[in-house]
Structures are given as structure tokens and as C-alpha cells.
Write a structure and sequence with these properties.
This protein is an alpha+beta fold. It is built from eight helices and 26 strands. It folds into four domains: 1-145, Immunoglobulins (Immunoglobulin-like); 147-282, abc- transporter (atp binding component) like domain (Coagulation Factor XIII, Chain A, domain 1); 303-388, no CATH class; 408-497, no CATH class.
């Protein structure tokens, strides 16, 4: 299948310009000896990204080479403020012409030692030839402390491995390992390459030997392996051990999967394990009688059921890629875990064609005969939410109240409290009966939203009584701004939540 990309290349005064700067960013936490802290194992966040060469401006050097220069700022912060900051300029390899520019791969990688705990990563890219052309990525991650037994790093999908002795940020264990910046494998991928690290296996008692590492691909997290996607190797325990390999995935159908890595002892008990969600798009898998039939719920959003069709003849044809990304965000409130993972992967690595297939498949699962009608009905709900909840620079469906309204519908009762003595502005939503994604009904469900900043900003969800949503037993510490508040029987929050 040929992919169609809406690319406009303008060559003028030795510059090339396309759409807004776009990149794909990912990170994996490994544990390395920190020379500044006695060489003890310390979390090391490996941050890597790939830039779409069609979305930056190029300029001609005096030597006639064509390059781009991208200012890169990476920060890690906690509630106490910025704990690590890095700033540098990435210059692309000089190219001779536009064809070479568009074919190049622009990627980079950096590693940062950090202390265990919750941190926020922010990566900002600025095109120095056009400082209005920017890209920002933000994510929150929790760095686990060192444990006294064996444990794994997170798995990492690799784009390419090379036996090249040169020094580079991508070199590990003598091999150049170029990580994939998105956990998405399309038709062009016939192999899944992976890498992880096992720590402190030598601390395991010898009565558990021999130890074996098992790597599988499964449909659900840590379940039995799918088809014959399994590898098992007996190991000689060391303090730090690389775990790497490949699966031929030509026969792996489109769908949502997990890469599972585990360490087992001599009685097949799991000593340590780690897992990674990924997606596969394979529109031309080889025919095989070994593929087991898979039953699906009506609202399953996995891409395995996608059929190739002419998207120009569907309701999606009138939307540009920016609007397609917005539609994916609109689906987040009503998506299950697998669907949320799929959408977030698409948002990190936009692919116009596959994003359209995903959306079409989603609404076709709701209304097989008329998916356009299903979309129209849902978009009407989104428009209602946009009118009800206008956040600071956000469409209504991206606000936290709009998110919950789309997920659960209109509350039975809404109580807005703006001027309660000693309290920040807040809002209480109460549902007589609320239906969750698993069809479980919850009676007398309550959501508490508040404004952390009294002057600006939208309401944030502080606490709820619904399993799976934010539950904060210490909500009073955030809502009330002095110790004496919250004890009054007139407090509406207390009236709804004290029981």
C-alpha cells in the first residue's frame, strides 16, 4: 500500500519549509552506576526523539551544504522545581539537495541521572531558522527506587542495531542501538527488536538456579504467548545483564500486543518481570492456518479488524491531519485501556493513514452500517461539552470536567461553590447511577472539582468516589486554605463526601 502524505515543499532563497515542526519522543529508564554517588545503581532516563525532516526550515551554508539548526531544551522537574536542565543546538548533517533533505533521518538521544520519585519531563524543540516553529513534549514518569532483589528495566523497542565501534550516544555493550521513538510497527517492519536490562540477578539464592529469561508477545499483559512468539534462555547471573533479541513479525496480525520479559527460577516461579504495550499494523499478513480465532466485544478499538478501504469516500475525507488528531483526543474519555494506549501512541507518532483507519474502525464498531452517523451523534455531544466547559486556551473536551461529562454523561446534580469561607472555588458532581466502561453500575457517585488558582485556570478533578478515577483521601488538605475550614456543616463538599 502506498502512503499519501500531504507535503508541500517550498524552495525559495535557498530555504525549504513545510508544515509545523513535528517530532516523536519516547523515554526508557535504565539503572546505571552513578560516578557522582559512589557508583551505586541510579535511575538513568534515556530520552530519545526523531524529527520529521519535512517540518523544519533549511538554510544554505557558505560551503553550499543545506542544514537545519534546532535548539533543544530538556528539563526534569518535581514539585520542588527544576532538578535537571540541558540545552544545546542540534545541527543536521549538510545535504546537497531537497531530495536528500527529505530522505534523511533526524534523531538524537540523551541520558540523565535522576533520583527516585515522580518527575515531569519536558522537551522543547525550536527551529532556529523560524523561532515560531516549535514543538513541545511533556510527560510524567515515576522512577522506582532500587530494590534488594532482581529487577528489570523497562523494555525498549529498537529501530536498528549496528556493529559499529564509533563512539555515539546510541552505543550500548559495544553495539549501536537506535531506539524506536514510538511503540508502533507498520507494514514496513518485519522484525521486532527489543532491549532491556536485568539487575542484581546475582543476588538470587543459588537454590533457585538455574535461572531462565523468557520473552513473549501476548494479546494481554503477562498472559500466555500468542502463536509461537516465545523465546527462553538460561542465564549465568550477573549484577547487570543485557536482554536483547528479535522476533520475526511477518505473521503477526494487526492489533494491540504486549512484549513480556520475565525471569524464572528452577520451579518456574517468576522472580522478576517487565512488560511493554505496542501496536502492530499489518495489512498483508501471510495466510496461516495456525492463527487462532479471536472473539471481540462490540466496542473493541483494536486495529486488528481494520479493512483496507478508500478513505476518500468516508466521512473522514473532509478533515485535515490536525482535525484527525483532535478527533482522537475526543475519543480518549470513552476509550478503554487498550484504546487509550493506541490513541496516545498515535498522538506521539502521527500517521495520517492509520489514524483515519483507527477512527473509522471505532465508529464502525458502534454502527456497522453507518459509522458516519455514529460519529455525528458523538460529535454533537462534543459540541455540547465545548459550550459547557471552556477552559483557559483549551477546547471543552480537553478540560477535566468536559472529559468526565463525555465519559459518564450529565450529572444528576451539580453544585458550584464560589465563596465558601476558607475554601478554594469548587464544584461537586453527583450521579444517582453511573455506568462505567465495564458496564458496572455505581450508585451515588460523587466527583469533586476545584480551582487550584482562584483567579485563572479551569477546574481540576481533586477526588471522586468512583474506582478507577482520581481518589484522594487527603482532598481536604488541598481544598481548604486554612486549618479551621472544612469542619462546618454548611460545607457542601463535606455534605456530599463525609460519608
Amino acid at each position: 500500500m502506498h502512503r499519501l502524505f500531504a507535503v508541500c515543499i517550498l524552495l525559495f532563497a535557498a530555504t525549504v519549509r513545510a508544515m509545523a515542526l513535528d517530532a516523536v519522543v519516547a523515554h526508557t529508564t535504565f539503572y546505571l552506576p552513578d560516578p557522582l554517588h559512589g557508583n551505586i545503581l541510579t535511575p538513568s532516563v534515556e530520552t530519545y526523539w526523531q524529527i520529521n525532516p519535512q517540518t523544519i526550515r533549511y538554510t544554505t551554508l557558505p560551503e553550499k551544504g543545506i542544514v537545519a539548526r534546532i535548539k533543544t531544551v530538556i528539563t526534569f522537574s518535581t514539585d520542588a522545581g527544576v532538578v535537571k536542565e540541558d540545552e544545546f543546538i542540534l545541527q543536521t548533517v549538510p545535504r546537497a539537495n531537497v531530495t536528500e533533505l527529505m530522505a534523511q533521518t533526524i534523531r538524537d538521544l540523551r541520558r540523565y541521572y535522576l533520583q527516585p520519585g515522580k518527575v515531569t519531563l519536558r522537551l522543547r524543540l525550536t527551529d532556529l531558522a523560524d523561532t515560531n516553529n516549535k514543538f513541545t513534549y511533556t510527560d510524567t514518569l515515576t522512577l522506582a527506587p532500587i530494590v534488594k532483589t532482581a529487577f528489570f528495566s523497562s523494555p525498549q523497542l529498537l529501530d536498528t542495531t549496528l556493529n559499529n565501534p564509533i563512539a555515539s550516544p546510541f552505543k550500548k555493550n559495544g553495539v549501536q542501538m537506535l531506539p524506536s521513538s514510538a511503540n508502533f510497527l507498520d507494514n514496513n517492519r518485519t522484525y521486532l527488536h527489543y532491549y532491556a536490562e536485568l539487575y542484581q540477578a546475582n543476588e538470587i539464592s543459588k537454590i533457585d538456579y538455574p535461572l531462565a529469561v523468557r520473552v513473549t508477545i501476548s494479546k494481554k499483559e503477562n498472559e500466555v504467548h500468542y502463536l509461537n512468539f516465545i523465546k527462553t534462555d538460561t542465564i549465568t547471573p550477573k549484577s547487570v545483564m543485557p536482554v536483547s533479541g528479535s522476533f520475526n513479525i511477518e505473521a503477526l496480525p494487526s492489533g494491540n500486543y504486549y512484549l513480556n520479559i520475565s525471569l524464572g527460577n528452577n520451579v518456574h516461579q517468576t522472580v522478576a518481570s517487565t512488560t511493554l504495550f505496542f501496536q502492530r499494523m499489518n495489512t498483508r499478513p501471510p495466510k496461516a492456518d495456525t492463527a487462532a480465532p479471536v472473539s471481540r466485544a462490540v466496542h473493541d478499538t483494536a486495529i486488528e479488524n481494520i479493512k483496507v478501504l478508500d478513505l476518500d469516500k468516508t466521512f473522514l475525507s473532509k478533515y485535515n491531519i490536525g482535525e484527525i488528531r483532535a478527533i482522537l483526543k475526543m475519543l480518549l474519555p470513552i476509550s478503554d485501556y487498550a484504546g487509550t494506549q493506541a490513541i496516545n501512541n498515535f498522538l506521539k507518532k502521527p500517521d495520517d493513514l492509520y489514524m483515519r483507519y483507527y477512527i473509522y474502525n471505532y465508529f464502525q464498531n458502534i454502527n456497522k452500517r453507518d459509522p458516519a452517523k455514529a460519529w455525528k451523534e458523538y460529535s454533537a455531544r462534543v459540541m455540547e461539552v465545548n459550550k459547557l466547559f471552556k477552559g483557559s486556551g483549551q477546547p471543552g473536551y480537553e478540560t477535566e470536567r468536559g472529559y468526565m461529562y463525555l465519559r459518564y454523561g450529565a450529572p444528576t446534580d451539580i453544585v458550584t461553590v464560589q465563596n465558601e469561607p476558607g475554601a478554594l472555588p469548587y464544584e461537586v458532581w453527583q450521579y444517582n447511577v453511573l455506568t462505567q466502561k465495564n458496564l458496572k453500575e455505581v450508585t451515588n457517585a460523587v466527583f469533586l472539582f476545584y480551582k487550584p488558582n482562584q483567579m485563572i485556570g479551569d477546574y481540576k478533578l481533586l477526588h471522586s468516589t468512583v474506582a478507577g478515577e482520581v481518589q484522594n483521601p487527603a482532598w481536604r488538605n488541598y481544598l481548604y486554605i486554612n486549618d479551621n475550614a472544612g469542619n462546618s456543616l454548611n460545607s457542601r463538599a463535606e455534605q456530599y463526601l463525609s460519608n
